[in-house]
Amino acid sequence: MIDEGYCLVPRAAKYWQLANAPPHVREIWAWLVINANHKDSQGIKRGQCVRSLADIIAGLVWFIGYRRMAYTKSKCEFALEWLRKHEMIETKKTTRGLLITICKYDYYQDPKNYQTPAKETSKGTRNQQPTSTINNNALKNENKEEELKIPIGFEKPIEDWKEYLNLRKIPFSNFTLTKFIDELLRVSNEVPSEAQKFVDQAITHNHNGLYPLKNEKNEKSRTYSKQEAGNDLIAQFNDIAFAEPHGEPKGLLR
After folding, report:
1. Beta-carbon neighbour count of residue 88 at 10 Å?
2. Taking a C-beta distance cutoff of 8 angstroms, is the pair 82, 21 a contact?
3. Residue 31: CB partners within 8 Å, gap ≥ 6?
4. Which one, of 69, 51, 73, 48, lies nearest residue 60 by Cα?
5. How far apart, in Å, are the Cα atoms of 229 and each of 112, 233, 243?
């Protein structure tokens, strides 16, 4: 028996933004998952842990020969901020240290979510299939559409977009959705909450794609500034038109 149980890492993690994060971010994420409670204990819930930056630094030391190496405080702070930004953890300061919550811990640590329906197979020796049947099955498997990979945290905006396409009876495939996800990650800077804003805007305005987010405050300020500039220009022309015949010219000719 292996002491202290286990934690699960889905193979789909290779498609997460985390896979392209700096190595120390990935290592700190794994360390937090390993150290999170697997059940509620002493006021700390399942999927949570209370740690300080010093705990993280001490927990991830390594050696080069006899030289002890460790991550700097700034690198740990950067990693935590990166994980918060990408909605992989939530943090809260307490008197005991930093309360760290692993987002979707229950979902990814439940073995039931990794089970696939067992296919019914006949017992005993199977009769060998004809060669043509085997070749046809292989061809079907080759032509089978690749499974859609949705990055962690982006499940809701993608589901909203799929539902929107279905309501408008717009055909789509996993290939086109993959392209859409790539674009959504780009425009949202890989932040799920920003991605939701892009999708909500597209749905609200019946768009077929993603457009820059409209900022009403900025639009109003631009409108006002143009209007004010126009008023100033009219005032300057009026100064010229109504200047005294022998007086000093005003406005634009000043």
Report:
1. 22
2. yes
3. 56, 59, 60
4. 69
5. 65, 6, 21
Measured over all CA atoms, what is the biggest interatomic distance in the chain, rounded to whole angstroms? 115
Q: Which token pair is 109?
A: 């640590």
- State how far the Cα of 199 lies from the Cα of 210, in Å rounded to an integer: 7
pLDDT tens, position by position, 70-93: 999 999 999 999 999 999 999 999
CA–CA separation, 130 and 112 (whole Å): 37
Residue 244 token pair: 């005294």
DSSP line for 38-68:
SS-BTTBPTTEEEE-HHHHHHHT-EEETTEE
The pLDDT value given to residue 253 = 43
Q: For residues 101 and 104, what is the distance between their CA atoms, to the nearest angstrom? A: 9
Long-range contacts, 46-50 (Cβ 8 Å, 24+): 46/105, 46/106, 47/101, 47/102, 47/105, 47/106, 47/109, 48/99, 48/100, 48/101, 48/102, 49/99, 49/100, 50/94, 50/96, 50/97, 50/98, 50/99, 50/100
Mean residue pLDDT across the chain:
79
Contacts 24+ apart (CB under 8 A), 174-178: 174/145, 174/146, 174/147, 174/148, 175/145, 175/146, 177/148, 178/146, 178/148, 178/149
